[in-house]
Amino acid sequence: MNPVCELLEWDTRFFGVRVGRVVGHRLDDAAARQALSWCAAERVDCLYFLADADSEESVAAAERHGFGLKDVRLTYQRRLEPSLAGAAPDLPPGVFIRPSRPDDAPVLEAIAEGTYTDSRFYFDRRFPRALADKLYRTWVRQSVAGQADVVLVLEDRGRAVGFITCHLTDAREGRCGLSGLEPGLRGRGLGLRLYEAALGWLAGRGVEVVVYVTQARNIRAQRLFQRLGFLSHSTQLWYHKWFDRAALDRGAA
């Protein structure tokens, strides 16, 4: 029998509570009961469940068993034409895009701070806001250190002012991950240019399909993707279920 849940070791270490995830994207009452039994046995504090939005049974089961909705996850896709490989975006004088260097990490972390407040970790108040901020700083730092296949940096007169991470999922698929831009530079089309550079970089490595994930509440990002020719691919729902471990321990005593 396949396991219904798995323990997320990285999340557990980072947040300081035991975090698990439901395996798969569909859930019925029987599977939900198995998941809750597993959480009790593993002393899990928070359980994630990413549900397919078109599964009425999964949504109903999650709600019946006390999961809280924290985010609507939208996945966009776009096919890449080989002609995009190496295409240089049109940038203002003194501005260019280059791969990141190790010494970029502190500046890019500062740009990331406060940029991702639409994410589920900010909308679940059981996660401290300071840790949610630290999560994305850590993500950017690890991306520069090699977790991403490349981090493209927007540089303005010698100063890093924006970035985007790119990932090669397999031989034909790529993914755009985190991106950020100094607040004072938003609304000038520079974010669009960063994404154009990312698409060119991915096309140059033979990628045929690019995936990007965002939140339904992030309207600005959705408009940007639509301008770049991305189309909606799927909608999913992020649920979190928290357990009062002290109360459970008292009940078991």
Structural notes for this entry:
This protein is of the alpha+beta class and 253 residues long. The protein folds into 2 domains: 5-66, no CATH class; 77-234, Aminopeptidase. The chain has helices at residues 9-15, 29-42, 56-64, 105-112, 120-123, 129-147, 190-203, 219-227, 245-252; strands spanning 5-7, 19-22, 46-52, 68-79, 95-99, 150-156, 159-168, 173-181, 209-215, 231-242. It has a 10-stranded mixed beta sheet. The relative contact order is 0.19.
Question: What descriptive keywords fit this protein?
Answer:
10-stranded mixed beta sheet, globular, alpha+beta, 253 residues, Aminopeptidase, 2 domains, disordered C terminus, 30% strand
In short:
The chain is α+β, with helices and mostly antiparallel strands and 253 residues long. Helix content is 36%, strand content 30%. It folds into 2 domains: 62 residues, no CATH class; 158 residues, Aminopeptidase.
Question: What is the strand content?
Answer: 25-35%
Radius of gyration: 20 Å
What topology, given as strand order, has the largest sheet? 1-2-3-10-4-9-8-7-6-5
Text of the CATH class of the largest domain:
Alpha Beta
CATH architecture level-2 label of the largest domain = 3-Layer(aba) Sandwich
Approximate shape: globular
Q: What is the count of β-strands?
A: 10
| Helix vs. strand class | alpha+beta
Q: Mind describing the biggest β-sheet? A: 10 strands, mixed
Which blocks of ≥5 consecutive residues have pLDDT under 50?
Answer: 246-253
Number of helices: 9
CATH topology of the largest domain: Aminopeptidase
How widely separated are the two ends?
30 Å
The CATH homologous superfamily of the largest domain is named: Gcn5-related N-acetyltransferase (GNAT)
The helix content is 25-40%
Order of helices and strands: EHEHEHEEHHHEEEHEHEH
Residue-averaged pLDDT, rounded? 91
The count of domains is 2
